[in-house]
């Protein structure tokens, strides 16, 4: 595929609001994401002198942690593609950009076991990449599943090759793959993406303090090493303030960044 020589990238860092019902996703989170894109794409394109072609949103961007107060799953999930991703797809076509975000998906043939899924939408409005988080989100403990937890189901549906677990999309901006938050703690995940051909790793995150503060700053350390050791670019979007009845306001810590291979 012909490559674009230069372009701008947005690591979008929105506030994230808890949704107790799927019907709240658009009002509480997605509408704001669309507003941010309408402002940030032309603004950043002009101020940086490079057309913005890619926007990356954080982990849990659609509906926060999908859990009840007792830690069980609250039942909030979407289809990908589906009515929520269709709103982002329409915006991707309108602004001629790629958009990556994250949500929870419950497959009809795997009821009660939602998977953590990041996806990439192209400027034609098509979902061209879906990545299922390969490690369970332990901070949820809500019956969620990683591919290894439902291995026979997963390989029957998506295959057992490297491209099933670490898929990469070949785009005009380069070959892009996704590493979701806690996957960064396992070197095999970024290496799997590199072996699949990734030149740009998208990393949606939901990191909190104290993991972000010096001297640890674990999110940055992990991402910088992943970029350097795999000789690729890495775009990391972390959530900003987090609004939930079950946690303090502002537990998110921001510090989204873009890292090169050096």
Write structural notes for this entry:
The protein has 262 residues and is an alpha/beta fold. 27% of the residues lie in helices and 22% in strands. The protein contains 6 helices and 12 strands. It has helices at 25-48, 83-95, 151-158, 162-165, 187-195, 218-230; strands spanning 8-11, 16-17, 52-56, 98-105, 115-121, 127-132, 168-171, 174-178, 200-205, 233-238, 242-243, 257-259. It has a 5-stranded mixed beta sheet, with helices on one face. Strand 7 (168-171) and strand 8 form a beta hairpin. Helix 1 runs parallel beside helix 2 and helix 5 runs parallel beside helix 6 (218-230). The longest helix has 24 residues, at 25-48. The two termini are 25 Å apart.
Features:
262 residues; five-stranded mixed beta sheet; 12 strands
The parts where pLDDT drops under 50 for at least 5 residues are none
Taking the alpha carbons of the first and last residues, their distance comes to: 25 Å
Task: Report the portion of residues in β strands.
Answer: 15-25%
The profile of the biggest β sheet is: 5 strands, mixed
- The average pLDDT score comes to 92
Instruction: Tell me the Rg in angstroms.
Output: 17 Å
In the sheet with the most strands, the strands line up as: 1-3-4-5-6
Number of strands: 12
Q: What letter string, H or E per element, gives the SSE order?
A: EEHEHEEEHHEEHEHEEE
Quickly give the structural class. alpha/beta
Overall geometric form = globular
The DSSP helix count reads 6
Share of helix among residues? 25-40%
